[in-house]
Fold this protein.
Amino acid sequence: MFVDVARISIKAGKGGDGAVSFRREKYVAAGGPDGGDGGRGGDVLFVADPNLSTLMDFRYQRKYAAENGENGKACNSYGRSGQDLVIRVPRGTLVKDAASGGLIADISGTEPVVIAKGGRGGLGNRHFATPTRQIPRFAKPGLPGEELIIQLELKLIADVGLIGFPNVGKSTIISRISAARPKIANYHFTTLSPVLGVVRVAEEASFVAADIPGLIEGAADGVGLGHDFLRHVERCRLLLHVVDVSGSEGRDPKEDFERINTELARFSPALAERPQILIANKCDIATAEQVEEMRAFAAARGLLFLPVSAATGKGLEVLPGKVYERLRELPPVAVFTPDYVKPAPHGGREFTVRKEEDGSYFVDAPWLERILEGSDVEDYESLQYFQTQLADFGVLAKLQELGVKEGDTVRVGEYEFDYLF
């Protein structure tokens, strides 16, 4: 099954907590604090895998998490960093933020791309020793890793896209000029997923062509296969617009051409400007007048015109060479520029204080909660350090501004204290 859209959640690893430890060794007097730092949490990376062609795997597993960093240890030993999680996706996959729709990365190159960064490891208690605080019984916990819900969208990377109404012969053409073997039958929507084929022109010359499933009027609004496959045209450098020049299905090939281009322009204005070659298929059952009328139609629009017969192979021998010559004049396959704006990290010193109905005060400050997590609340020096943080970053001043009095209850996360002046 061809799957080109998936939604998953990813979570980078949490940093390891710093250790609270003191050196106790025979013949070593006053060894002091020796708690090591926690290891960094693992990152979540995405890398293109040329062996993948669909996002099917993400239908069965939707949650991905990197390894947490190891906690710090005694004897100034650092915790081990968490192992990165590498997620393999087909080349050409877009990674978007599910909430905002912003593009985080276009996985089109060969290098891995970091999508979610692991949290920094916490500092051990050896960092908090001072001449006046020689026995720090607290350390810093590790920071959480980034967590995202992302949308994966596959936009096939192909130099050339074959477009046109259903049953005009696109699948037969790509099967003739490449090793691709799409389903071929005499009815509409035979091809239900894009098919890639490598077209070899010479020993060192080739290009990738994509058979885009039949588009119809209203495709830009999702009619037919609509948006499901219009996205795969966006990267193509050149479009081979295939029409049934014989009108065997009772349609006018000129009207078909205009309708498809209208849908392309509605879906993406840039597609309306994409270079095209007009392929007049089924010329073996068309009259000479029909072929010449279509040739004049193409000339009026400045398009290269190639009459072919996919059934007999007539005209297809020159098609790869003509396409390759045109591709040499065009820029490389498009790579989309990220526009995602990452929210401000929670690791700053921002906070809010509010007075509750019961007269207590609540301090909303994640960074203060992390300090408390790594502290021994029964230890005088730990509480002294905590109180210094309250004063240095303006929390005490804000409490006083709101009218806090001695003996009032102050809550920070799940911790509760009596305010002492």
